[in-house]
Amino acid sequence: MAAVLVVAGLASMGRISGHPRSRAGGDAARGYHLPDPAEGDRIAASLLGGAPATSSGTPVPTISSEAVEPLPVSEPLRAGAIAPTPAIGALLHVGDGAEPEHFCTATVVHSPNRNLVITAAHCVYGEAFASDIAFAPGYHDGFMPYGVWVPSRIDVDPRWISDRDPAYDVAFLQVRRPGTGDRIEEVTGAEQVSFDSPVDRAARLIGYPDDEEQPIGCQNTTTALSDTQVRFDCADFPDGTSGGPMLTDIDPANGRGTVIGVIGGYQEGGDDLTSYSSRFGPDIAALYNRAGTADPTQTPTT
């Protein structure tokens, strides 16, 4: 499915929904953005003022994961509701006077700074960097059980910014929880991230549809669409699932795995039957290394 979003400079095709504002910022040549801390504090306060912070305890249907590898293929090959997990959540935006909405999906990944989130580049950069956004890990039914986290730094490959090259539809966000010194990885745990992984892997794809209040998932084997694109065949991943992780090597004890892709890349997500991801090669690894070790208050030197 291809939705079109043209709002205040953020133009995007793909599985992105809602209306986050956009503004120029950072250095497009280096592909990073340093959000305004005061704006992040305002966004977090607005979200926390409008939604409970703890779960209702209502059980959510889940996909079974009885083995680490391989994951059983979903039957039928259609996305279905799964239980929320701490390290995967929804990206939300807060417009002026509007109710918060979730518009993309993101995932906490392990990093040296322990504060890193991965999503699709088209979720955070269209014609400019998105503003008015926050991350709610474990989000479901309006609940934000692990709090609200706002970007302190956004890293995108400059080739995405200049050409919207689908090989680089990946973004890393350093995040913070206003009013605390918490590191998100210490609160939610984190998925691992792998680069130059073999293409044919049993994987679980997860995302937050824009018209649902819990995540959906599906399991299948990834394949190569091209040297720069990974393909995942499973129906019914709609708008809002952009940025959702492709997870392999899932531990049945805690549900954590390894991210080898995020919904995006070719067609900025895919269609009703197939999802895609930019392949995580050396360039995405370099972006991760820069984002995961950088001081969020300082501009890059290279």
Name the shape in a single word.
globular
Hey, roughly how much beta strand do the residues contain? 25-35%
Low-confidence stretches: 1-13, 51-67
Helix content: 10-25%
Please tally the β strands and state the result.
20
* Main beta-sheet strand count, sense and barrel state: 7 strands, antiparallel
Count, helices: 5
Average pLDDT, rounded to a whole number, is 85
Question: Helix/strand-derived class?
Answer: alpha+beta
> Roughly how many Å apart are the termini?
37 Å
Task: Kindly describe this structure.
- This protein has helices at residues 37-50, 121-124, 158-163, 184-188, 282-293; strands spanning 3-7, 10-14, 22-23, 32-33, 80-81, 88-93, 101-109, 116-119, 129-130, 133-137, 150-156, 171-176, 192-193, 202-207, 216-221, 223-226, 229-233, 245-248, 258-262, 274-278.
- The chain is of the alpha+beta class and 302 residues long.
- Strand 14 (202-207) and strand 15 form a beta hairpin.
- The longest helix has 14 residues, at 37-50.
- The termini are far apart.
- The model is unreliable at 1-13 and 51-67 (pLDDT under 50).
Keywords:
302 residues; alpha+beta; 7-stranded antiparallel beta sheet; 5 helices; 14% helix; disordered N terminus
Write the layout of secondary structure elements.
Elements: E1 3-7, E2 10-14, E3 22-23, E4 32-33, H1 37-50, E5 80-81, E6 88-93, E7 101-109, E8 116-119, H2 121-124, E9 129-130, E10 133-137, E11 150-156, H3 158-163, E12 171-176, H4 184-188, E13 192-193, E14 202-207, E15 216-221, E16 223-226, E17 229-233, E18 245-248, E19 258-262, E20 274-278, H5 282-293
Parallel strand pairs: 13-19
Antiparallel strand pairs: 1-2, 3-9, 4-11, 5-15, 6-7, 6-10, 7-8, 8-12, 11-12, 14-15, 14-18, 16-17, 17-20, 18-19
